[in-house]
């Protein structure tokens, strides 16, 4: 057996005699492995010495049974997720000088996402000030920076990002697409949702392209479906919702089908004037006459332009109008105009 190699160790600062020690290997491999060790353990002095010795800043940790969870991760990623901000900040500074690519090798997500996942505003700011990190994140198509911050529930980072893009003549132009809906699909923070709705750069009203859930739903519809009463109240206060083509019956159905009675009750209390089309009013009048329900007929006749509900969910023109469709309408009218609908005959037909 060969005698142990006596190589000066960058980590222990002594000749330990262990031939397989990562920090005692010759050349770049030696310094790069030492840098990986420093990032995992948070040893700033070792990180500096390893970089000075020529460590590769975008090296990745090797796959070993003992350290499988560190495999394929760069030193910067390891330092951020190991909660070693001093080492991470130092590596970011090194990257700013050398234009090194710290992108995580395995999943190719931008390095700034590591700082966002760790909810570190300081490291996020450092990376945004670096043109390489900023461009890398801005050009990433699958998830935007703001979506990532919203997903991980970090209000300081969300607020900082919105402040950057809202400044006049700002150089920051990253997208806000889907940010509000991404927030609602998690356990939403009212603080984050409020901040998003205050920004003119965030689309509060429209569904995303596509026909599948949740892309085909507006943020308000998602809030009703999930039962977020405070957020429903917040969104309904937005001026653009008043007089829009939103269907109260659809919102009510989303809330009721998911047993969110508090949301349904709040929707029924609103004073927004939801209009009925002339065609629907005519059909309801005709059916009311056939069913001999004078109260319903009188209500429709006298309130044709002011009924505070829409029936487009229950009354489907393709299948006609029958008493089952009308139950939803009667439910809404009974809640809003209790003095009119006295007879139960429409339910027992």
UniProtKB/TrEMBL annotation:
Please name the GO terms of the biological process aspect recorded for this protein, alphabetically: positive regulation of protein catabolic process; protein ubiquitination
The UniProt entry, under Pfam families, shows:
Ank, Ank_2
ANK repeat residue numbers: 71-96, 215-238
**Chain ranges passing through the membrane:** none
InterPro entries in the record: Ankyrin-SOCS_box_domain (IPR051573), Ankyrin_rpt (IPR002110), Ankyrin_rpt-contain_sf (IPR036770)
Which controlled-vocabulary keywords does the entry list? Answer: ANK repeat, Repeat
> PANTHER family per the record?
ANK_REP_REGION DOMAIN-CONTAINING PROTEIN, SOWAH (DROSOPHILA) HOMOLOG
What family does the entry list?
Belongs to the ankyrin SOCS box (ASB) family.
- Any idea what this protein is called? Ankyrin repeats (3 copies) domain-containing protein
